[in-house]
């Protein structure tokens, strides 16, 4: 998607960068290569480089830099590792990128309270490495090895949100540098509170448009005593979705429940050389609990799946077998790309009430006919969230236009079914045009929030709402 | 607590009420008895009657009434059934009370999606009656038979938040009449979304200060196949709290985990004629799951409790035995009152990280010495939330002053330990004085939100923040 980017005023830019350079020296980079890398995410949205990239080492430094920018009304774009997918980090009005990757310390682990406090540059894999010896883990897994700051800013989730929730449910408290350079703390380590407006949830998912997140307190969980995994194939999509609905209604606390459609499963069978599996809609399950309960959970789901014609139900508690089963799911993206050598993946992200999921996917598939697009599908099916991946030739504008048009129709369909234009990737600038259809009059309240927090519109301008 | 209440301007009042009377006839009540009942909650906070009480029958009527009030900058105070505890419904600046009890319809039950949509006047017991035949239930249980609208507005929780979360986690979407009379809808029925600022969470817990909630979409759950209950007694508070910490760390999905301190347990032993129990700190548990898993959960907790010296661990899956065990917990408040015949209960509400809970309770107990106050304690111990109930003579000002001072110290202590001045009751006007200590600079962001949504400060003025 191309966008109307407007550079900052050169005189203003030179003045602000001059002040910052004097203060921070080499930790302000003006190199073209570094700037370009920081204006780009992992999507096909147009990249726009910032005017400079600052690598702070403390909250105080972030606050100082933001205060300088605020004084000059110079844009600020926070940056984690750049794995976002909707153009979040493109510097549409120029400005200063604040790269938080050097703020990567785990500050506190409170095992008794099942919480941790981290700096925003800590990645989720780094956090889980750090936690391993404590018997704790942080479950949210969006696929990419994103930073906790970035995951908080986009309200990320992933494969085990069905059991553990999203960043919305797992952030307890934040430290944030506000657009005027003040440092505030929202929320407390107490598990619950009714003490006023929920500023923490307001900042989770705000994509750098309301402030720079400099510290995050997260819920963590005890590593389960046992884990079991299962794979099951279905005659059609309806049966697979019905199985997930009944599994959820039955209160089975499934940790992951992932759908691959026939196209994606075909890709995985080839790519991962899966033997004994057919090219059909397939569910991958993971269960967490005690030794006895993970067996019971798998058996209960097997009984449900069989009601709906599920076959080839295979489950295991052995770690090596589990890893083999799930490896195919983890490699799904590469398997998809292998369907069309030389292509690149363009990932969509809608979420609907699960009762509409089978219909939404079926109509999305029908709509693919005639477009010539190849597009396997994976779904976090317990949440009604699915991703179609268009395999496109990035040099073929007609194909890109087809993908964009199909993606737009898919979003409109999802919104029409009570769903959302983005289940977990966020708005950036790529999804802004859908917010009016999704939120109606409530969109004006988002604008009101933005103006109240950031009256000069310096924080990641041009994202989420036009202020 | 007494408060500086200022009546509305008589001329303005007569003009606005005249317009509303003409439009709504008998559904606007000006009767002194009805007005007085609507200015009062279940606490000891000073009641302040509104100028009139309106009983709308639809969202459109709420919108119409709010628009009239907005035009004249006349205060609006939403009202459910008046079970709040911090002076939420006191009409501190006069104005129109909107009693939503006639909007009491369950509008939709989506069994496949595990959600329901209700009007705000539906009470939680009414909702569960309605759901019974569907095999679904709504778990949040704050004790009182509050309305869903009121529970949403105060971010209520209660005994099973440890498993099912609070209203924060269980509201999917809201319809709200804004302070200018516009009707907006926040959120969607999709289980998750990253589409912009989380307005739903901003309105949950806003206590009528940002708008009038007119429709709520809630998560519901399948009624568990089996339920087991257990009671266990401990040599001291530390052992009881350590048991709950290890239970949570072990990932045992306990549905309720309630602490009674020795004073409260003594009251229950007498009142409920419990045989074979001692006057000691006691935990009540409830487990939800399959037949096998509720047995396993109870046995696992028993093993943990025994490590910490827990004795008299008794558990059962039989409904009649469960009801008998839990009846004593449900009657705890009456048992407490019976400790001092003729007294009335004054309930406090703090929440701390669970690692600080034993210390916080111990210091709170020490602080009682010398005050002469009798104050049993119950705690939602998995969340770190506890309630001390002062048994006071409402005619004895010295006693009331002692209770207020002790309560204030308890709040300051909780905040000092990383906790909150209110775990689940809300701010109203009773807890406003603590928000600065709890939130620091973030309090100014709450003021900014209030001003952005309600620039004329007509929505429940004088609550949460001074705008």
Task: Briefly say what this structure is.
The structure is a homodimer of 467-residue chains. With 467 residues, chain A is of the alpha+beta class.
Largest interface: A-B, 98 and 97 residues
Gyration radius over CA of chain A: 23 Å
Tell me what portion of residues of chain A adopts beta-strand conformation.
15-25%
Unreliable parts of chain A: none
Q: Tell me the number of helical segments of chain A per DSSP (H or I, 4 or more residues long).
A: 17
**Derived structural class of chain A:** alpha+beta
- Beta strand count of chain A: 19
Approximately how much helix is present in the residues of chain A?
25-40%
Largest sheet: number of strands, sense, barrel closure of chain A? 8 strands, antiparallel
Choose one word for the global shape of chain A.
globular
Classify the oligomer.
Answer: homodimer
Please give the alpha-carbon distance between the first and last residues of chain A. 21 Å
Mean pLDDT across the residues of chain A is: 96
Structural notes for this entry:
2 copies of one chain form a homodimer. Chain A has 467 residues and is α+β, with helices and mostly antiparallel strands. Chain A is 37% helix and 19% strand. In chain A, the strands form 4 sheets. In chain A, strands 12, 13, 14, 15, 16, 17, 18 and 19 form an 8-stranded antiparallel β-sheet that branches. Chain A has a 5-stranded antiparallel β-sheet with strand order 5-6-10-8-9. In chain A, strands 1-2-4-3 form a 4-stranded mixed β-sheet, with helices on both faces. The longest helix of chain A is centred in the last third of the chain and has 20 residues, at 397-416. The interface between A and B is large, with 98 and 97 residues.
């Amino acid at each position: 998607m191309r966008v109307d980017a407007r550079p900052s005023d050169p005189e203003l830019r030179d003045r602000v960068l001059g002040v910052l350079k004097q203060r921070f020296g080499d930790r302000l980079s003006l190199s073209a290569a570094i700037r370009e890398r920081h204006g780009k995410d992992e999507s096909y949205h147009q990249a726009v480089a910032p005017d400079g990239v600052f690598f702070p080492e403390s909250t105080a430094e972030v606050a100082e830099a933001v205060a300088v920018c605020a004084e000059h009304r110079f844009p600020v774009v926070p940056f984690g590792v750049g794995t976002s997918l909707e153009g979040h980090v493109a510097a549409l009005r120029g400005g200063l990128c604040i790269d938080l990757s050097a703020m990567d310390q785990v500050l506190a682990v409170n095992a008794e309270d099942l919480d941790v406090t981290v700096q925003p540059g800590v990645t989720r894999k780094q956090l889980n490495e750090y936690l391993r010896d404590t018997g704790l883990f942080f479950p949210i897994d969006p696929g990419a090895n994103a930073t906790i700051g970035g995951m908080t800013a986009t309200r990320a989730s992933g494969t085990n949100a069905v059991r553990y929730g999203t960043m919305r449910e797992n952030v307890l408290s934040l430290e944030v540098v506000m657009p005027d350079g003040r440092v505030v703390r929202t929320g407390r380590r107490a598990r619950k509170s009714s003490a006023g407006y929920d500023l923490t949830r307001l900042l989770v998912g705000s994509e750098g448009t309301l402030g720079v997140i400099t510290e995050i307190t997260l819920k963590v969980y005890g590593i389960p005593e046992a884990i079991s995994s299962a794979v099951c194939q279905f005659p059609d999509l309806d049966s697979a979705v019905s199985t997930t609905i009944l599994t959820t209604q039955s209160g089975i606390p499934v940790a992951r429940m992932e759908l691959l459609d026939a196209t994606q499963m075909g890709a995985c069978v080839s790519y991962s050389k899966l033997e004994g599996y057919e090219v059909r809609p397939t569910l991958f399950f993971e269960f967490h609990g005690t030794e006895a309960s993970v067996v019971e959970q798998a058996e209960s789901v097997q009984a449900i799946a069989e009601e709906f014609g599920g076959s080839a139900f295979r489950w295991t508690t052995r770690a090596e077998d589990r890893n083999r089963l799930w490896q195919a799911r983890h490699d799904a993206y590469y398997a998809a790309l292998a369907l069309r050598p030389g292509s690149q993946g363009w990932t969509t992200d809608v979420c609907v009430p699960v009762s509409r999921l089978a219909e939404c996917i079926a109509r999305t598939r029908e709509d693919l006919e005639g477009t010539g697009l190849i597009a396997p599908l994976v779904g976090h099916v317990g949440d009604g969230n699915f991703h179609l991946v268009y395999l496109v030739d990035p040099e073929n504008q007609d194909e890109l236009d087809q993908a964009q048009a199909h993606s737009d129709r898919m979003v409109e369909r999802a919104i029409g079914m009570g769903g959302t234009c983005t289940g977990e990737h966020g708005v950036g600038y790529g999804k802004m045009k859908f917010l009016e259809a999704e939120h109606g009059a409530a969109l004006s309240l988002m604008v009101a929030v933005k103006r109240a927090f950031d009256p000069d519109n310096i924080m990641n301008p041009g994202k989420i709402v036009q202020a």
